[in-house]
Amino acid sequence: MNIFRLVGDLSHLLAIFVLLLKIWKSRSCAGVSGKSQILFALVFITRYLDLFTNFISVYNSLMKVIFIASTVATVYLMYIKFKATYDSNHDTFRIEFLVVPVGGLAFLVNHDFTPLEILWTFSIYLESVAILPQLFMISKTGEAETITSHYLFALGSYRALYLLNWIYRYYFEGYFDLIAVVAGCVQTILYCDFFYLYITKVMWGKKLSLPA
Amino acid sequence: DEKQKNKDEL
């Protein structure tokens, strides 16, 4: 474990709970893409199948349980409890256009052609594009609530910190995973446009609105 | 095995 990965995991945890609290407190999921949340739930479920078979540490197992539970809870709040506030008119990204190619790629490019490894690879590839429905929804509505932009900033920062973690581990531990690094770069690059808007607007107290 | 052990990241 290193500081980049620890801060990255905590940033990820923060993002998930900021969103969960926003929906729970405001009793509304306006401006939030349910499709992205479904993809994140799929990412965690396919990645943490080894939760019971491959014990790494208490921290690792605890975080896996928290990530799965909180993301499933978010999907539940959005599609069941506060379904009336779900903005399906703007959450129109066709996620099958993500899941199918990512699934195919996971079969073709992976470290080991075993079910667990292919599912892990699928999860890594899917996570890199899972935020697209959310970014697409913001581009359609033209703006995002401030709390939603904080969620996105924390979520985008987590994988950027993981990139630093991989640089650190490469030099100090000789650890390198090309699939995770390439997917992590794609994932972080997708946030660049948002990071720019966040830093130039939200940081100065302005609302995040995309140039019309 | 070694590969599986390597999966120590979230």
Automatic annotation (TrEMBL), chain A:
Membrane topology: Multi-pass membrane protein
Taxonomy, superkingdom: Eukaryota
Main location: endoplasmic reticulum
Any GO BP annotation: protein retention in ER lumen
UniProt GO molecular function: ER retention sequence binding
Alphabetical keyword list: Endoplasmic reticulum, ER-Golgi transport, Membrane, Protein transport, Receptor, Transmembrane, Transmembrane helix, Transport
Compartment list: Endoplasmic reticulum membrane
Keyword Ligase: no
Protein name as it appears in the record: ER lumen protein-retaining receptor
Species classification: Eukaryota, Metazoa, Spiralia, Lophotrochozoa, Brachiopoda
